[in-house]
Specification:
Blueprint lengths: L4 H14 L5 E2 H10 L8 H13 L3 E5 L6 E5 L1 H11 L5
Antiparallel strand pairs: 1-3, 2-3
Length: 92
């Protein structure tokens, strides 16, 4: 599977949009990913692959949800920096 930087940004945008102070449940993120295909469903396997790559790159962190035991995904400082670099236009 190839890394698609547009989908990396999309994944990080989803995490930012749906995470609370603890993060977003991995299962909920996968559902949001599949629903966000804009006409064609996004593949769950690509979501899992990109989460793993983003964790490896230090853009996402994974923890265990208190009282639930599910996996929580949250943006790291590096993940926020990546999003800012891709979305904030420099002022001239």
């Amino acid at each position: 599977m190839r890394r698609n930087l547009e989908n990396v940004k999309h994944l990080l945008d989803l995490v930012q949009a749906y995470a609370d102070q603890h993060g977003v449940l991995y299962e909920e993120l996968a559902i949001k990913w599949q629903e966000s295909g804009g006409g064609r469903p996004m593949q769950e396997s690509e979501c899992f692959y990109l989460v793993a790559l983003c964790k490896q790159a230090g853009m996402l962190n994974e923890s265990v949800a208190p009282f639930h035991g599910g996996r929580l995904i949250q943006l790291t400082w590096s993940g926020h920096e990546y999003l800012d670099a891709k979305t904030i236009k420099p002022q001239i």
